[in-house]
Amino acid sequence: MKLKLPDPKIFACSQSVTLAQDIANSYGLELGKMQKNVFSDGEYQISFEETIRGRRIFLIGSTFPPTDNLMELLLMIDAAKRASARHITAVMPYYGWARQDRKDKPRVPIAAKMVAKLLQSAGATRVITMDLHADQIQGFFEVPVDHLYASTILVPYVKNLNLEDITIASPDMGGSKRAYAYSKFLNSEVVICYKERKKANVIEHMELIGEVEGRNVIIVDDMVDTAGTLTKAAELMMERGAKSVRALATHGILSGKAIERIEQSHLEELIITDSIPLKRTTSKIKVVTCAPLFADVMHRVQNNKSIGDQFLI
């Protein structure tokens, strides 16, 4: 007789409570009870307010700046380990520090690898994340990593727009693989932007490889930070005769004046997921929830089922 596995428990980091609640609702469970006590100097302590002994637990938290968000997840993992949880799965819709995945000049850290080591040292036995900045970050872990793709939810959104003459664009050379993957599902052409930077977040020159005249262009990227690349690419494409320009980005970091840039740009709309909470609403930014995707994968992990059909790209 096969024993039924006890239901898992789902807990939320404070920076991802809204998304975690949506994931829990999609899964069919209540969020677990926990408490965060903050001391006057800013230090904080995490405590689970219900037993988790022998259970699989899912800890949901994106690790965008400030570093408190990463630290809170690490403390939750450590607390769960010391409370005798059976499996501890870190659910990180946005994996912060992923842009530092290699040494691109002397005497710099590989922060993405350091974060992976911290998560494992704290006690994470599995990681579920979405659209890593570099796929090879999965190799930094010695525990299973379920790397999901937002294309699962973004491609249907694009299809529902019922656009004709679609061209998929990559904002840089590094994103060409992603662009070609989207084009395969949308049966579209591909163009690539070539950019040169003076320094991080500052573009010196951008050129377009391919034709966009008379096309409805959709730029795809894993994240949008300052929106400098995105808005410059949209301007360049409209100058080259594009009918319209939209953008898909999994993670809406949107730092600095990014939202203002998008509002004033040639973009028809920017479609992002809710992996990072949107700072403020605007008519040009549409948010597509990733909660059902994560809930489904968590359910499959709990029941030892394949998640292969959740990979569009």
From TrEMBL:
Swiss-Prot/TrEMBL keywords: ATP-binding, Kinase, Magnesium, Metal-binding, Nucleotide biosynthesis, Nucleotide-binding, Transferase
Record-linked PROSITE patterns: PRPP_SYNTHASE
Segments traversing the membrane: none
PANTHER family: RIBOSE-PHOSPHATE DIPHOSPHOKINASE FAMILY MEMBER (PTHR10210), RIBOSE-PHOSPHATE PYROPHOSPHOKINASE 1, CHLOROPLASTIC (PTHR10210:SF41)
Protein name from the UniProt record: ribose-phosphate diphosphokinase
Ribose-phosphate pyrophosphokinase N-terminal domain: residues covered: 9-123
Entry-linked CDD domains: PRTases_typeI
GO molecular function: ribose phosphate diphosphokinase activity
InterPro entries: PRib_PP_synth_CS, Pribosyltran_N, PRTase-like, PRTase_dom, Rib-P_diPkinase
Pfam families documented for this protein: Pribosyl_synth, Pribosyltran_N
Its EC number(s): 2.7.6.1
Species this protein is from: Namhaeicola litoreus
